Each structure stands twice: as structure tokens, then as C-alpha cells.
Amino acid sequence: MQNLNPAYVQIGRQEAATILGISSRELDRLRTTDSQCPVGFKKADNQMSPVKFRLSDIYTYSAYLMDQAFPASSKSK
Question: Which pLDDT score, from 0 to 100, does residue 76 have?
Fold first, then answer.
């Protein structure tokens, strides 16, 4: 599975959260509170249909989060 284009790869909610380094619950919260967070999509219009994300959208959002972050202090407290 070499040379997969992230623009065409669909991933589930848990995979998206793992890539972002957050919990699924946190991802759900961000989907409603952060306008930059991808909302995902469903293949069917019902509550039981799983939410999917385009891998490239998750990568873009991860880059956005890193750009907004502050450097970690190297000093021990």
C-alpha cells in the first residue's frame, strides 16, 4: 500500500483522534467548538452511521494545532 494519497484516504473517528494525540471525546468537542476542526462526513444520514474523515484534513488540522501551540519549557520545576 505505497503511495496512498491522503486526500483520498478515509479514516474513522478513533484513528483521527489518535493521529491528533487526543481522545475521541475531545475530538467530538473540538468538532463543535473549533471552526478549524474537520467535522467529518457520513455515508448515510442516520445516527448510527460512523463518522469518517479525510486523512489530509486531519493532517492539515494537526499542522494548524502545532502552529498555534507554544514551545514547551525546557526548565524543570
Answer: 62
Q: Identify whether the C-beta of residue 58 lies closer than 8 Å to the C-beta of residue 9.
A: no
Collapsing DSSP states into helix, strand and coil, what is residue 14? helix
* Exposed / middle / buried, residue 66 (Cβ in 10 Å: 0-12, 13-18, 19+): exposed
Report residue 62 as a C-alpha cell.
494537526
Domains of the chain, each with CATH number or no CATH = 6-67 (1.10.1660)
21-75 confidence digits (pLDDT tens): 999 999 999 999 999 999 999 988 888 899 999 999 999 999 999 999 998 887 7
If you search the block for the grid coordinates 489530509, which residue do you land on? 56
Nearest to 57 by CA among 20, 14, 22, 3: 20
